[in-house]
Every structure is written in C-alpha cells, then in structure tokens.
Amino acid sequence: MYRILQGVMKYRHTQREVMVRQFEVVRDDPHPKAVFFTCMDSRMLPTRFTQTNVGDMFIVRNAGNLVPHANLCGHEEITTEPAALELGCVINGIKHVIVCGHSDCKAMNMLHMMRNSDRTLQEMLKLSPLKAWLMRHGHSSAGKFAQLELSNFQAPLVFQAETPMRRFIAYIDPDNKFSEEDKLSQVNTLQQLQNIASYNFMRDGLTRGRVYIHALWFDIYTGDIYYFSRQQKMFVDVNENNMEKLEEEVLKYYT
C-alpha cells in the first residue's frame, strides 16, 4: 500500500493535470471505440500495448478473460461480463468488442491442469471459487482444446462467429511455437467470441454489422501482439511485415 500511495503522489505531480484535461474533453461527448475483455494478470497493461487513452475503451478484466455463455447466465446468476456488453454495445453504441488472452496465463495453466479431472473434483470446487469459475465458464474452451489434442494439434477448429449460421476456422499455433497451456489460452480467447455472440441483446448488432468481435493474444515474454485473422485463419503477429495486410482485412470487413 505504501507503493500505491507513493504512486498516487507521483501522479498528482506529473500526470494529474493532463488527465483532468482529457477527462474534460470526453466528459460531455464520450466516444469509446471498444469493449476490451482481458485477464486480470498484473502483467497485462492493455492501454499501454494498444496505446489507447482516456475515453477510448471500456475494459473488463477477470481470471482467464472469460465471457460466460448466455446459457450459463440467467436472471438468478448474472455476471459483470454480459452487463458490460450491454452497457457498451447496446446503451453506448460501441462497435468493436475485443477479447485479449495472453501467454503464461495462470488461469489457463490451471484449467489445463484440471481439464481431465473426474467428478471427484466437485468437493474441491466448493472450496475454490477460482477453480469453480474456470470449470464452469472454461469448460467449452477445454472441450475445444481436447479436439485439438486428438489431432496432435494439427487439425483446425471451427468456431461460431457473429451468427449461428456463420463460422470461422482457426489453426492454433501451426508453427508449434508455444506450450500446450498457451495453445489452450489461444483456443479460450477464440471461444469467448462465440460466447459473446450467444446473447440475444447482441444479436441484432452482430447480424446487421453494427458490432464486430475480434481476438488479440499477447505474448508476455516477447511483447508481441497477435491478431486473429479470419482470412489467414490464425493468430498473426502484428508487426511491420504484416500490418498492411491486416489493415486491409480490418478496413474491408470491420468498418
């Protein structure tokens, strides 16, 4: 807490005036551009690696960057994530929803460890909110990962896109650069796009092209950011060599 308080004092002396001016600019006419779901991992600093600023994004963080499927969120069990979608996309008219996973995700490492556990795990789940959260809302990701394992990590996976009739294909880590846990993290990131599209209140915007869903993945140990390209059917490193092609894809399909 001492370090936090020292940080507040540094902010007051160096950043406060600048931020207050930025707040004043967006106060009466806010135009956030994205709802950004990511992990609560302390190494994830999305405003820094996207170079976004005050008023640019609604950011929602949790263990494992999970967005519960609509079937798991009734009126008696609601979570922050669908509420954030409604606030952002329905009430504020935000056009882009982004899910960003990352390497060495402790939540995904735990889900990977638990993926083959039998029902005796139920007693343990009662004692661990984190494990219960992962098993309930990460189960579909673990199922997709099991399909990938059966193909020795070679076959593509199929995910639902904006509508039940629209699909996209994904090759997960075709160059085999990452660990199994990181492969699961990439699968999980894409699964959340399917979960986002499961909400009735999102359907109209997704169907009519007023809302778009995207996936990013951050490699913590290299600082590289990957964008899931539906044209290339895989996560593509966002760099000087790929940027022009990615920009063309985004401008063609997501504007």
From TrEMBL:
<dbReference type="GO" id="GO:0004089">
    <property type="term" value="F:carbonate dehydratase activity"/>
</dbReference>
<dbReference type="Pfam" id="PF00484">
    <property type="entry name" value="Pro_CA"/>
</dbReference>
<feature type="binding site">
    <location>
        <position position="41"/>
    </location>
    <ligand>
        <name>Zn(2+)</name>
    </ligand>
</feature>
<dbReference type="GO" id="GO:0008270">
    <property type="term" value="F:zinc ion binding"/>
</dbReference>
<keyword id="KW-0479">Metal-binding</keyword>
<dbReference type="InterPro" id="IPR036874">
    <property type="entry name" value="Carbonic_anhydrase_sf"/>
</dbReference>
<keyword id="KW-0862">Zinc</keyword>
<dbReference type="InterPro" id="IPR001765">
    <property type="entry name" value="Carbonic_anhydrase"/>
</dbReference>
<comment type="similarity">
    <text>Belongs to the beta-class carbonic anhydrase family.</text>
</comment>
<protein>
    <recommendedName>
        <fullName>Carbonic anhydrase</fullName>
        <ecNumber>4.2.1.1</ecNumber>
    </recommendedName>
</protein>
<feature type="binding site">
    <location>
        <position position="39"/>
    </location>
    <ligand>
        <name>Zn(2+)</name>
    </ligand>
</feature>
<feature type="binding site">
    <location>
        <position position="105"/>
    </location>
    <ligand>
        <name>Zn(2+)</name>
    </ligand>
</feature>
<keyword id="KW-0456">Lyase</keyword>
<feature type="binding site">
    <location>
        <position position="102"/>
    </location>
    <ligand>
        <name>Zn(2+)</name>
    </ligand>
</feature>
<comment type="function">
    <text>Reversible hydration of carbon dioxide.</text>
</comment>
